[in-house]
Amino acid sequence: MKTKIIVLSAAVLGILAPVASAQQSTVNGAAGGAVTGAIVGGPVGAAVGGVVGAVAGTAIDPPPQRVVTYVESAPAPTSRVVVKEKIVVGKPVPETVVLTPVPDSPKYAYAIVGEQRVIVDPQTRTVVQVVR
């Protein structure tokens, strides 16, 4: 029985390893979860902890403070966009929203949607932070 659990745990971790290596925070989450799970619940705990840690590790990291400060003080564009969809962290902004790059930070862009300033990942258009 123990052999089956160990083999199953190894298989689950082997399948999830390539997915978890997609982002550094995911890898750290998976590794930390697996270690904690192994301490608490042995091999099965390691498998479950690795999965939970990987999911938790994919949470969106907030942008650096210098990016937030820039977006807070950046001049507003002449035309503002109003969208029907609610702007939510982790969801993409609509294609109609014009993104403005943040100087010296190619990982970030910003937009003003309605009265909200939002920081966005320009590659995926995913909202990283809503600036209040």
Could you characterize what this model shows?
- With 132 residues, this protein is α+β, with helices and mostly antiparallel strands.
- It folds into two domains: 56 residues, no CATH class; 67 residues, no CATH class.
- It contains three helices and four strands; from the N terminus they run αααββββ.
- A four-stranded antiparallel beta sheet has the order 1-2-3-4, with helices on one face.
- A hairpin with a 2-residue loop joins strand 2 and strand 3.
- Helix 1 packs across helix 2.
- The longest helix is centred in the N-terminal third of the chain and has 34 residues.
- It is elongated, with a radius of gyration of 20 Å.
Radius of gyration: 20 Å
Q: What count of structural domains?
A: 2
Binned strand content: 15-25%
Low-confidence stretches: 16-28
Class by SSE composition: alpha+beta
Approximate shape? elongated
Q: What does the average pLDDT come to?
A: 75
Could you give the distance between the termini? Answer: 55 Å
Series of secondary-structure elements, N-terminal to C-terminal: HHHEEEE
Q: How do the strands of the widest beta sheet line up side by side?
A: 1-2-3-4
Q: Helix fraction?
A: 40-55%
Report the biggest beta sheet as strand number plus sense, adding barrel if it closes: 4 strands, antiparallel
The counted number of beta strands is 4
Number of helices: 3
Summarize the structure.
With 132 residues, this protein is α+β, with helices and mostly antiparallel strands. The protein starts with a helix and ends with a strand.
